[in-house]
Amino acid sequence: MLSVLLQLPDADIVFYPSLLDEQESDRLLTQLTETIDWRQDWITIYGRSMPQPRLTAWYSNPGISYTYSGITMQPSPWTRTLLDLKAKAEAVSGVVFNSVLLNLYRDGNDSMGWHSDDEPELGQNPIIGSLSLGGTRRFMLRHRAEKGLKHQIELTSGSFLLMQGTTQHYWQHQIPKTKRPVPPRINLTFRVIDLSVRLTSELDTD
Ligand SMILES: O=C(O)CCC(=O)C(=O)O
Ligand SMILES: [Mn+2]
């Protein structure tokens, strides 16, 4: 499968432009839009509560909840379709994932702000496999220390982006809003949650 290694310092990011073909991607976009248990979470920014600018869902092996930005998501059990996609992501990356966070960007107003995926339960060097379906959106990267270091890549339908190694230590990423008309997009970020890490930190706080 064609892959492109991004030439960025302190990062290990590989882009696979076509994990899925166009027809398969279109079919999955429709199916997942209709069948996933989408939820609208609310976030607090500067003391004001507002709807998160996208819909989300969390599917995983039993018992793996996920907490980020103060939101804890209880898992839904894997579906046939998600297991098929997980197998495809595993075949190209050589990683066994145990969970997936899904994001639905309804239009150009939906977005995700600057962040790193560096919660403790993602382990020392988080491995994130990110599959995109539907409208093309811009994925921006910026180095946390070297302010001039930036990169951007268009995440097209059917593409897969693998982030690993020290990427989350040194880089942040975002999906900015856009004024261009864009069709809906679903992104699936497959993750490896290390339950033992969480158990330890929970015990520590008792
Ligand atoms: O939508 C995307 O491509 C990025 C999603 C993301 O960064 C995340 O779920 O942590
Ligand atoms: Mn992320």
From TrEMBL:
Keywords: Dioxygenase, Oxidoreductase. This is Alpha-ketoglutarate-dependent dioxygenase AlkB. It holds the Pfam family 2OG-FeII_Oxy_2. GO terms for molecular function: dioxygenase activity. The keyword Oxidoreductase applies. Residues 96-194 form the Fe2OG dioxygenase domain.
